[in-house]
Amino acid sequence: MSMNFVNPVNDAALTEIVKEFGPPVATDRKTFLFDRMNKLEQRAMKRIANAAKQPATVEIHAEGDIKIMSDGTRYQVTPTGWKRLDEPTPAPA
Fold this sequence. Notes:
The chain is an alpha+beta fold. It has two helices and seven strands. It has helices at 11-21, 42-52, and strands spanning 2-4, 26-27, 31-33, 57-59, 66-68, 74-78, 81-84.
């Protein structure tokens, strides 16, 4: 599962996300990747979106799906969870 935001989240939203889903496998504060799937509850999602002051989008992923973080790092869903595929691509000089 991933949770996505348009802008980086603040500390209050980060606290709510970790409280509800546990620590993410990876995050750039705009995208959060989780290995375990909790039951999604509307009240919890509302608390997270209100704390972040922006909408939150949740995606359910299948094995083989790839998610790219804002720094270019790619993660792929494996049978055991998210796996980092490569290092971020450096910005051109």
